[in-house]
């Protein structure tokens, strides 16, 4: 098996994605791989009359600033845990689509992502982003469940 050189970790700032960052950081240390943390902002789509927007430009800029700050925090944690090369990127669009498109465009070797483990109606209604990425990604995808033991 060829060693991993480029790891992609989608984060939603939940405990599940923090676990994925932890696992990916360990892999990055072992393989001396680069780590890219991404967050996909999926704007809610509402049927609004022409000329109306969900957020004003200043409001949207504040949302992006907050998300960039959270990404910077996740990056700092990955570096503190031993990842040597960490980048971040904020994307916008449908979450699963942006993850698979970005992973293919960036020629990543592995996507490491958390899974919320929803079942039944919650899974049916909310769907599974991880499941969609597993089905459509051009590279292998490692899904990580939230650990019950602290690191």
Describe the protein's architecture and organization.
It is built from five helices and five strands, in the order βαβαβαβααβ. About 4% of the residues have low confidence. It has a five-stranded parallel beta sheet with strand order 3-2-1-4-5, with helices on both faces. It has one domain: HUPs (Rossmann fold, 3-Layer(aba) Sandwich), CATH 3.40.50.620. With 151 residues, it is of the alpha/beta class. The longest helix has 24 residues.
Descriptive terms for the model:
five-stranded parallel sheet; alpha/beta; 21% strand; 5 helices; 151 residues; globular; Rossmann fold
Using only CA atoms, what is the Rg? 16 Å
The residue fraction in helices comes out at 40-55%
Number of domains: 1
**In total, how many beta strands?**
5
Instruction: Compute the number of helices.
Output: 5
Topology overview:
Elements (H helix, E strand, L loop, with lengths): L5 E5 L4 H17 L2 E8 L15 H24 L4 E8 L2 H11 L4 E6 L4 H7 L2 H8 L4 E5 L6
Parallel strand pairs: 1-2, 1-4, 2-3, 4-5
Helix pairs in contact: 3-5
